[in-house]
Amino acid sequence: HSIYQNITTSKAKGEKLLAVLIDPDKMKLETVSSFIAKVNQSIATHIFVGGSEVDNGLTETLVIEIKKHTELPIILFPGDVIQITDEANGILFLSLISGRNPDYLIGKQVEAVSKLTKTNLEIIPTGYVLIENGKETAVQRVSETKPIKRSDIQIIKDTAKAGELLGMKLIYLEAGSGATHPIEPHIISEVKRQLSIPLIVGGGIKTKIALDSAYNAGADLVVIGTAFEDDEAFFDELKKQTVFNE
Ligand code: 1GP
């Protein structure tokens, strides 16, 4: 269980983690080597691979290609069962606990078992909490669930805590890919206070300032996808030194 252990060790030391999210639907195979070269030179510590709508087989081909170019752990962040591949190192075994669609709470997970038991993937049970961000995102559309309102702080906190009490190993606060508003720092810090497990935050983070404020508010691992897809120069911008005041 080295991936999870490394995350908890970093959390204990106050070292912040960054996952670059690669969507198999958007990444062209021929650009993987140059993109991953940038990732390798950046502050990124993990690579997440996944998307809400991905065709069969694409994920595995992409992971095989990424692996040729990096030593970073590759973790599946699947939108569906078909994205499971033994080529990755681990998988966020997600349950969309903000929603009330049984398919995404337990149905897909049951479907996934016959595949998962044939793999060596490190399986990391993760409570996935979708927060409203100003527009409808793919997660919302595909899962047919409502995100929790940003103003419903108590519900957000209780949802995250329920995930921890159910035995989940990570909580992922998600604004949705390309979100207009990233998760607000006060939401992150309120949730953080409830939890003893590591906290992941993602969705709509496009600047170094937004990244740092997520870290300062208590995110242990931040996920960024769109900002790197749009502009690879963002990798260099993140290298500039920051002092954390946590
Ligand atoms: C989406 O949290 C991730 O699941 C990343 O979002 O693409 O907006 O960075 P972005």
Automatic annotation (TrEMBL):
GO terms for molecular function: imidazoleglycerol-phosphate synthase activity; magnesium ion binding; phosphoglycerol geranylgeranyltransferase activity. It holds the Pfam family PcrB. One of its GO terms (biological process) is glycerophospholipid biosynthetic process. The keyword Transmembrane helix does not apply. Mg(2+) binds at residues 23, 52. SUPFAM superfamilies: FMN-linked oxidoreductases (SSF51395). It catalyses: sn-glycerol 1-phosphate + (2E,6E,10E)-geranylgeranyl diphosphate = sn-3-O-(geranylgeranyl)glycerol 1-phosphate + diphosphate. Its EC number is 2.5.1.41. It is an enzyme of class 2 (transferase). Keywords: Lipid biosynthesis, Lipid metabolism, Magnesium, Metal-binding, Phospholipid biosynthesis, Phospholipid metabolism, Transferase. Sn-glycerol 1-phosphate binds at residues 172-178, 203-204, 225-226. It comes from the Bacteria. Coiled coil: none annotated. Its cofactor is Mg(2+). GO terms for cellular component: cytoplasm. Belongs to the GGGP/HepGP synthase family. Group II subfamily. Prenyltransferase that catalyzes the transfer of the geranylgeranyl moiety of geranylgeranyl diphosphate (GGPP) to the C3 hydroxyl of sn-glycerol-1-phosphate (G1P). This is Geranylgeranylglyceryl phosphate synthase. The lineage of its organism: Bacteria, Pseudomonadati, Bacteroidota, Flavobacteriia, Flavobacteriales.
